[in-house]
Amino acid sequence: MASWFNGGVRIFHIVDGPSWFPHAPPHLEDIGYYIPAALPGNPGTAPQINDAIVDEHGLIYAIDRFTGGLYILKYTGPVP
């Protein structure tokens, strides 16, 4: 998982390299994202997600450094 400023919060899954390519290293697969709209009072035109932290229950806490405040998210996609 990572925060990408105006790209919001991204969730990644590590997958093995393709079987047809011997010794291919694992790579990241993008499996989820959350990009909030910029709120009124935001000096830019996009959110600015600075930090994202996952707790022991799988909740994701993300902070918008300008006007968005705190977002609490939970991944519910098909990849565990």
Compact description:
The chain has one domain (2-17, 25-74). The protein is 0% helix and 44% strand.
Q: How many angstroms separate the termini?
A: 13 Å
Tell me the total number of β-strands: 6
Give the strand order, joined by hyphens, for the main sheet.
1-2-3
Low-pLDDT windows of residues: none
**Estimated radius of gyration:** 15 Å
| Helix vs. strand class | mainly beta
How large is the count of helical segments? Answer: 0
The string of secondary-structure elements, in order, is EEEEEE
Mean pLDDT: 89
Give the percentage of residues in beta strands: 35-45%
Q: How many structural domains can be distinguished in the coordinates?
A: 1
| Helix proportion | under 10%
Biggest sheet overview: 3 strands, antiparallel
Shape: elongated
Structural commentary:
With 80 residues, the protein is mostly beta strands. It has one domain (2-17, 25-74). The protein has no helices and six strands. The strands form two sheets. Strands 1-2-3 form a three-stranded antiparallel sheet, with no helix packed on it. A three-stranded antiparallel sheet has the order 4-5-6, with no helix packed on it. Strand 4 and strand 5 form a beta hairpin. The protein is elongated. The relative contact order is 0.26. The mean pLDDT is 89.
What's the helix and strand layout?
Layout lengths: L1 E2 L5 E7 L11 E8 L14 E6 L4 E6 L4 E6 L6
Antiparallel strand pairs: 1-2, 2-3, 4-5, 5-6
How would you describe this structure in keywords?
single chain, 80 residues, mainly beta, 3-stranded antiparallel sheet, 6 strands, 0% helix, 44% strand
